Amino acid sequence: MRTPMIDYLHLLLGSVAEDAGEVASYIPELELADPDRLGIAVATLDGEMYAAGDADVEFTIQSISKPFTYALAIADQGLDAVLERIDVEPSGDAFNEISLDRGTGRPRNPMINAGAIAAHALVRGDDAEARAERILDLYSRLAGRRLSIAEDVFESELSTADRNMALAYMLRTVGKLRGDPADVVRGYTRQCSVSVTVRDLARMSAVLAAGGRTPEGDQVFDPAVNRQVLSVMATCGMYNSAGDWLTSVGIPAKSGVAGGLVGVLPGQVGIAVFSPRLDPHGNSTRGVRLFERMNHDLGLHLMAPAESARSVSRRLERDGAAVHEIAGDLHFTEAERVLRGFALEPVGDAPVVVDLDRVHRANDIARRMLLEGIRRLHEDGHDVRIVDPWGVLGSAETGSGELVRGEQAHGGYVPASFPDVASAARA
Ligand code: GLN
After folding, report:
1. Which of 43, 142, 159, 324 is at 20 to 30 A from 267, Cα to Cα?
2. Last residue of a domain, one of 257, 274, 298
3. 8 an active-site residue?
4. Which domain holds residue 361?
5. Do 360 and 391 form a contact (C-beta atoms < 8 A)?
6. Which of the following is catalytic: 188, 254, 288, 323?
7. Is 95 in the same domain as 118?
8. Is 63 annotated as a binding residue?
9. Residue 65 · residue 110 · CB < 8 Å
10. What residues bind substrate, as annotated (predicted)?
11. Could you tell me if residue 62 is inside a domain?
């Protein structure tokens, strides 16, 4: 079978044949872009990539760099230090607006230029080149290939960077930027000049969608940092059309003036499109339309979440034991259903089997809920046996991504001391 995914992407590109808007001209080199380019790539969290159109054409990342550099700044300095210098409120202003919070002097968020310049300055490195190199290493790790800087775009943008220079000097006057403003703008401009394709951007977005982890299992961002970045993208990623975007498309996103636009559906997919003509907000015109269509066709809106599986657990009787067969990934709502099933067991010493053979993942809250349920069944007098071949209860991930052993999290109850009754349960 030929997967319908690719056909769908072609259909999608065909649906935005008409284009409007202007290629960015305030950076001379960007004005040279072919305005008719159109490409799309969709990356799944397990590493599959679907692409159509101009998917191998390189363009500069521009403002799509901002969320990734913000993540690096937090990793380098800690969230509190970053929040002290950069707020997380949508500004309702254009991306290059010279606006700082009246009270605190902080740029309103890291997605507008003022905040992005401040975030760049917080990345460790002695000078522009050193910071840009670390940033390039990070983007390459996310993209899964070695990226490079488009030196022609960099020179062109730096030679016309008066406005960003003004922002950086202003940030220094209010104490929100250490170091030499010209050096910071130089490094920030290098960061914006990294050359990418939609395939690269889709993969980078898929890492954000996966809580900071690449398909190969490389945990690039701490899950808490990743969440911070996605939240800011959701509220501020589309500048002064952020509200419009969140209601009509409804996923964290980021645009760049070279025509790139990425969207992240947490837990599901990373998407990137490229079309250089921009709307008055500086967002790709056809890019926005493509996302609106995908939202409609694929049901991507964050506020219309998929309901959790109803059939997460079922109860069978086997050899005089009540077997709770549980299936699927477990989060709060699924764990609540499992507990509901446990709660129906009458008090007594009848054996209960908790069969997690079909569960490969549980988040920390689901794991703790299950352990507490098991502890209570035990307290009620049941002989509880656990089938946990994937180690879901013993090594589930916590929010910080580190492994916590069962004993630590729930006060002395040791699931490992129960015999593995996999064979008995299936006999
Ligand atoms: N490098 C561009 C700038 O600083 C990025 C702006 C953008 O992509 N919106 O103006």
Report:
1. 324
2. 298
3. no
4. 312-423
5. no
6. 188
7. yes
8. yes
9. no
10. 63, 113, 157, 164, 188, 239, 257
11. yes
Question: What span, in angstroms and rounded, lies between the C-alpha atoms of 187 and 164?
Answer: 12
- For 281, phi then psi, to 5°, come to -80, -10
Domain assignment present for 304: no
With respect to residue 303, please indicate whether it lies within any of the assigned structural domains: no
Name the catalytic one among 88, 257, 269, 421.
257
Residues 390, 360 contacting (CB under 8 angstroms): yes
- Measured over the CA atoms of residue 131, residue 114, residue 110 and residue 242, the dihedral's sign is negative
Is 62 near ligand 1, meaning CB less than 6 Å away? yes
**pLDDT the model gives residue 309:** 66
Domains identified in the chain, total number: 2
Atom of ligand 1 minimally distant from the CA of 95: 9
Q: What's the pLDDT score for residue 102?
A: 81
Which one-letter amino acid corresponds to residue 110?
P
Full-model pTM: 0.84
What value does the mean pLDDT take over residues 247-276? 95
- Asked if residue 335 and residue 377 are part of one domain, the reply reads yes
Question: Which token pair is 289?
Answer: 């339309």
Same structural domain, 177 and 260: yes
pLDDT tens for 306-317 read 666 677 899 999
Instruction: Give the pLDDT confidence score for residue 183 in this predicted structure.
Output: 98
Residues 261, 367 within the same domain: no
DSSP string computed for 67-96: HHHHHHHHHHH-HHHHHHH-------S-TT
C-alpha 416/C-alpha 384 separation (Å) is 12
> Does 39 contact ligand 1 (Cβ within 6 A)?
no
Report the CATH number at residue 61.
3.40.710.10
Residue type, 244: D
- d(C-alpha 314, C-alpha 412), whole Å: 28
Is residue 89 a known part of a binding site? no
Would you list the DSSP string of 339-403?
HHHHHTSPSSS--EEEEEEE---BBHHHHHHHHHHHHHHHHTT--EEEE-TT-HHHH-B-TTS-B
How many other β-carbons are positioned within 10 Å of the β-carbon of residue 412?
A: 8
The pLDDT tens digits for 205-234 are: 999 999 999 999 999 999 999 999 999 999
How many other CB atoms sit within 10 Å of the CB of residue 105?
Answer: 15
Cα–Cα dist 344/309, whole Å: 19
Distance CA 219, CA 213 (A): 4
65 is catalytic: no
Count of all residues that appear for the chain in the document: 427
Q: Identify the residue whose C-alpha is closest to ligand 1 atom 6.
A: 63
Would you say the CB of residue 69 lies under 6 angstroms from ligand 1?
no
> 101-123: per-residue pLDDT in tens?
888 889 999 999 999 999 999 99
Catalytic residue among 239, 288, 354, 359: 239
Spatial contact of 139 and 194, defined as CB atoms under 8 Å apart? yes
